[in-house]
TrEMBL record, chain B:
Pfam families: BPD_transp_1, BPD_transp_1_N. The chain crosses the membrane at residues 12-31, 101-121, 133-158, 193-211, 247-273, 293-319. Belongs to the binding-protein-dependent transport system permease family. Keywords: Cell membrane, Membrane, Transmembrane, Transmembrane helix, Transport. This is Peptide/nickel transport system permease protein.
Length: 313, 325
């Protein structure tokens, strides 16, 4: 499964560098999409994207459908699905379906921003450690080891208790701060091997500064790996946020799926209200699954060893 | 000789990491807004008791001396008095830690063993329906949201079917009964442990299975597998004796890397099932602002993760002679 003939042709004409990159991307995408795993992941993710988008609509139709403050005046305890409330309501008379839709928005927000931040930290630290070597490398990697052995959920919990109630952006930042070491290890080892390549020596001889070498020559080469790790980090960020919310340490001003599970658990409705217990858990599990599937399919595109071999077995 | 040196080096490293965590926690505790004294000493305490506790914990000393006191107190087991229980923190930890270790080690060992076993078989039958289905199942298990699956199990197996108790670790009636022997008590704990164990097992088995599968697929491409086949060894012997032992190594590494993750899961499981472990105690302490207990719980949890890491490293060195020589 090599790159197509067009790619190689594009390679030959030096002027067509841009079209070469585009073609490479398209080839990668074709490889990705040909994989049923990647296809399923993208499909699931698209469903959640649609959920997040339409979550803005119900509160406009009727303020009763506002996920946080909207209360159905005719309902005083948890009720099952009906035409008016597709998934039923919670014990305060709030509509579960709109809560579920809003949860998708929060999950995307938390997952992607926390993952992006942890990738930025991880990539920077990994590149610096790998490029600088010696004491800097050893110090940064020991620090990474230390963070890696700390259970991130429990650390964030402890911080939440020391610093008081956390809002959603602080939670995102804390998740990012405790999830970079895995990424930086991978990026570091890539940087170590890149450093030995001739083009880095050439850049140095040409008088490029360390900063320029790191950002112009090393960064573009480690970026695909960083993107891959980002999809896995999205998964773990969503899970940590959901778990925090489930334990009652979420942002009280947002409705996340973890929060919904906390409400059903804490109000003692878990045995009576399956329509309340099931949807948030299914959503958390499926959104993490979709990012995970995308990550695995990307891994196969980036790592030729994992691709399907025709002549094996 | 080399083996011992390797373990010794790892222990030194782990101790250094633990000191960093200890120090980090101290700094955090003193840098965060709020008064450390009021956090360690309960408001309702009598003046003499409070001043005794303050001098014991060194809270009236300058900061650097406080740090020394803090380290000394860690090694002498003096963590202050829990607000909620009104007892020395170390006693509570002493009661909770064994319960956590029991649940944690059983779940890690069982899920790793099952993951390795199934991963081995599935890789062997690559491309067949059993491979596809088990891989999909493993992926789904791996991404399930733990507290939710725990609630679901309680709802189905404990509430509707009634096979298992709703929560807790023991049935008091069984333990009060003086005629109850060791076996009865152990069976009672086992009965309570089954659902939490199942939850942790399902969450962890998927990732071990996937790692074992891909590692086994890599190993099967090696030349010595071809040699083994050419020698005319039976398929089973090639799989179990020649391929699998080499494929174990990445799984062992991943156990080490995922220990912190497993402890997170353990704390959530303990909380949902009211299993009286140290993770649940930490979450409780944090909710009640019981700082002496929360800090001590956190330190001991880190200690458990670090010790488990050393054990995993030793196991790795034992399985892979190349590390030793």
């Amino acid at each position: 499964m090599n790159f197509s003939a067009e790619t190689r042709a594009a390679c030959n004409t030096a002027a067509a560098k841009r079209s070469y990159n585009l073609q490479r991307f398209l080839d990668g995408w074709a490889l990705f999409y040909e994989n049923p795993v990647g296809k399923l992941g993208v499909f699931l993710l698209a469903c959640f994207g649609v959920m997040a988008l339409i979550s803005y609509i119900p509160p406009l139709i009727d303020p009763m459908y506002h996920p946080m403050t909207g209360v159905d005046p005719w309902i005083s305890n948890a009720t099952g699905p009906s035409a008016k409330h597709w998934l039923g309501t919670d014990n305060l008379g709030r509509d579960l379906f709109t809560q579920l839709l809003t949860g998708a928005r929060i999950a995307f927000m938390v997952g992607i921003s926390a993952a992006f931040m942890s990738i930025v930290f991880g990539t920077l630290i990994g590149m610096i450690a790998g490029y600088a070597g010696r004491v800097t490398d050893a110090a940064l990697m020991r620090f990474a080891d230390m963070i890696m052995v700390m259970p991130s959920l429990l650390v964030v919990l402890l911080l939440a208790s020391l610093f008081g109630q956390l809002n959603i952006w602080i939670i995102v930042l804390l998740i990012a701060l405790f999830r970079w070491p895995g990424v930086s290890r991978v990026i570091r080892s890539q940087t170590l091997s890149l450093k030995q390549r001739p083009f880095i020596d050439m850049a140095r001889v040409a008088g490029a500064s360390h900063m320029r070498i790191i950002f112009r020559h090393i960064l573009p080469n480690v970026l695909p790996m960083a993107c891959l790790y980002m999809t896995f980090r999205v998964t773990s960020a969503i899970i940590v946020e959901a778990a925090l919310a489930f334990l009652g340490f979420g942002d009280p001003n947002t409705v996340s799926w973890g929060m919904m599970l906390q409400w059903v658990w804490k109000t003692g409705h878990m045995f009576q209200a399956p329509y309340w217990l099931l949807p948030p858990g299914i959503c958390i599990s499926l959104i993490t699954l979709s990012f995970y599937l995308i990550g695995r399919a990307m891994e196969e595109v980036l790592d030729p060893r994992l691709r399907k071999e025709e002549n094996f077995e | 000789m080399h083996f011992r040196k390797l373990i010794f080096r790892r222990i030194i490293e782990v101790m250094a990491i633990f000191f960093l965590i200890l120090t980090g926690l101290f700094l955090l505790f003193h840098l965060s807004p709020g008064d450390p004294v009021s956090r360690m000493v309960q408001p309702g305490m009598s003046a003499e008791d409070a001043s005794m506790l303050i001098s014991q914990l060194g809270l009236d000393q300058p900061l650097w001396l406080q740090y020394l006191y803090y380290v000394k107190n860690f090694f002498t087991g003096n963590f202050g008095i829990s607000f909620h229980y009104g007892q020395p923190v170390i006693h509570i930890i002493g009661r909770r830690l064994p319960n956590t270790i029991l649940l944690f080690t059983t779940s890690v060992i069982l899920s790793a063993a099952a993951g390795v076993f199934w991963g081995k078989l599935v890789a062997w039958y690559k491309g067949r329906p059993i491979d596809t289905w088990v891989t999909i199942l493993a992926l789904v298990c791996h991404t399930l949201f733990l507290p939710w699956i725990a609630l679901l199990f309680i709802w189905i197996f404990a509430y509707h079917v009634g096979w298992f108790p709703l929560n807790g670790m023991i049935t008091p009636e069984v333990w009060i009964n003086p005629s109850a022997g060791f076996l009865t008590k152990a069976a009672d704990i086992g009965h309570h442990m089954l659902l939490p164990l199942l939850t942790l097992f399902i969450i962890h088995v998927g990732s071990y299975l996937l790692i074992m599968r891909s590692s086994m697929l890599e190993t099967l491409k090696e030349d010595y597998i071809l040699t083994a086949r050419a020698k005319g060894l039976s398929e089973k012997r090639v799989r179990n004796r020649h391929a699998a032992p080499n494929a174990y190594l990445p799984v062992v590494t991943s156990i080490g890397l995922s220990l912190a993750f497993s402890i997170n899961g353990g704390a959530l499981t303990e909380t949902v099932f009211s299993w009286p472990g140290i993770g649940r105690e930490l979450i409780f302490a944090v909710s009640n602002n019981d700082y002496p207990l929360a800090l001590a719980c956190f330190l001991f949890i880190s200690l458990v993760v670090l010790v488990a890491n050393v054990i995993v490293d030793v196991l790795y060195a034992y399985l892979d002679p190349r590390i030793r020589y």
